[in-house]
Amino acid sequence: MKKIWIADTGLLLVAFIWGTTFVVVQDAIATIPPLAFNGWRFLAGAIALLITYIWVPNKKKSDLSLKMLANGVLLGTILYIGYGTQTLGLLYTTSSKAAFITGLSVVLVPLLSLLILKQKPKKTAILGVLLATVGLYCLTLVGPFSLNRGDGLALICAFAFGLHIILTAKLTPFYSSFLLTIVQLATVSLLSFISGSLLNGASVTFNLTPFTHGNVLFACLFTAVFATALAFLFQTRLQRFTSPTHVGLIFIMEPVFAALTAVVWSHESLTYSVEFGAFLILFGMVLAEWPTQPKKRRIQPIQEK
After folding, report:
1. pLDDT classification of 305: cutoffs 50, 70, 90
2. Confidence band, pLDDT 50/70/90 cuts, at residue 298
3. Angle between helices 34-54 and 177-200 (to 10 degrees)
4. Is residue 299, in this structure, part of any structural domain at all?
5. Which of 244, 236, 270 has the alpha carbon at shortest distance from 255?
6. Is residue 37 part of a domain?
7. How many of the other CB atoms lie within 10 Å of CB of 236?
């Protein structure tokens, strides 16, 4: 039980970091193309973890295997698909709709958990997921709901993030958290550079001039260390101690933290809809972890002959 609470606290910290960096990243990608930014960000994160790993004692040589490398590339590819479709989707839809549809990964996690891990979520967890989804709708959506191709890309992103949570839960018990995370981040960086070169040109993607702007350099370094290296290392290391459904619920706190950051950083005001949505998400998280009483078996009375 203690490990579960430590894992939940660490994963909540990850959601907090991702939520608070939204404003910083949004400011940076006004100067540098998003795919180029992701390429440099994930590369810096991978290098930071690799340097740290070199100094970690008692490394297991058995972790350095082709199977581990293949699984790390698989997780990194899924993560890249999530980030790539999310970025491209923002070209055709609003950020609020993209945030809502991406957040629907919290609904997909229990279904994927049942199909892939054969883990049936608790009824309270399912109810918590539904409440959190309604809360996410209140938190992010403004105006009538309609669908376009940007929303379709955001839906692919939701599937990718949900699948990443499930496969992380399945693979992390068998490999070094450091190595698995390093391979993931390096994969995202490589694929981001390749797709950025195809979309924007290599000269634009590998141009270092934007880093002469203080906001871009700060955003890249800050997100590389905290929102990439530490965040994904925490997820890889801690997710083995809690259920994938609960991980999805914790990560749905990201837009809540993003909204609070906007209030503090940009002096935006919270609407009643945002406040109610945040309340439903928090209540859904609590409900998902509400202890359930095991069913007692009914003892049939012995009939006298």
Report:
1. very low
2. very low
3. 160
4. no
5. 270
6. yes
7. 23
SS3 content of the chain, % helix, strand, coil (to 5): 80, 0, 20
59: exposed, middle or buried (C-beta count within 10 Å: 0-12, 13-18, 19+)?
Answer: middle
What range defines the domain where residue 135 resides?
2-55+65-288
pLDDT in tens, 207-219: 999 999 999 999 9
DSSP codes, 194-208: HHHHHHH-HHHHT--
Band (183; pLDDT cuts 50, 70, 90): very high
Where on the phi/psi map is residue 238: left (φ > 0), alpha (ψ -120 to 50), or beta? alpha
At position 111, the amino acid (one-letter code) is L
Q: Are the CB atoms for 36 and 200 separated by under 8 Å?
A: yes
Token code pair at residue 280: 């439903």
Amino acid residing at 145: F
In a domain, 300, yes or no: no
Residue 28, token pair as written in the block = 């940076």
